[in-house]
Specification:
Number of helices: 1
Strand order of the largest sheet: 2-1-3
CATH class: Alpha Beta
CATH topology: Ubiquitin-like (UB roll)
Structural class: alpha+beta
Strand content: 35-45%
Largest sheet: 3 strands, antiparallel
Helix content: 10-25%
Order of helices and strands: EEHE
Distance between the termini: 27 Å
């Protein structure tokens, strides 16, 4: 299973962020888990959801190509 970081922007003009981590096999699976775990209190003003695969520091690429 992979670990995905999900950032939800909400709050209208006074933007705030809710962050959660979900485990899933694929990004589509992560999206399904996010829907299940979406906080009811942020839903009315949420306007952006970002899903990123979290990599171990040794797996990250730095620098050009």
């Amino acid at each position: 299973m992979a670990l995905f970081r999900v950032t939800i922007r909400y709050g209208g003009r006074g933007q705030r962020y809710h962050v959660l981590d979900v485990e899933a096999e694929t990004v589509v699976g992560a999206l399904r888990r996010v829907v299940e775990a979406f906080p009811a209190e942020v839903e009315p003003t949420a306007d952006l959801v970002e899903v990123r695969l979290l990599l171990e520091p040794t797996e990250r690429e730095y620098g050009p190509g």
